[in-house]
Write a structure and sequence with these properties.
Layout lengths: L4 H16 L14 H13 L3 E6 L6 E8 L1 H9 L4
Antiparallel strand pairs: 1-2
């Protein structure tokens, strides 16, 4: 579970960078993240319109990708994000 909003934003940033670079699923990410945290951050990115082409499978754990990609808003978020 995230302890701060900054931790949440950093996770969302890292997930978006991975999706941008073609690593769609958590198992392929270049960093470690808890499954629930991944789903929470990815769900928020979807709600904010940062990513498209992903749907959550209700009743099962996980999500499905059908041509996942960042939106213009997602690219702006990544470009303007400051890791500190």
């Amino acid at each position: 579970m995230f302890k701060t909003s900054k931790e949440f934003e950093v996770a969302m940033f890292k997930i978006l960078v991975n999706i941008r670079d073609g690593r769609i699923y958590q198992k392929d990410f270049d960093f470690q993240i808890d499954e629930q945290e991944c789903e929470d951050a990815l769900s928020k990115a979807l709600d904010l319109g940062y990513v498209t082409g992903i749907s959550f499978i209700h009743g099962l754990s996980g999500y499905r990708s059908y041509d996942a990609r960042l939106t213009y808003e997602g690219l702006l978020f990544v470009e303007n994000f400051k890791l500190s």
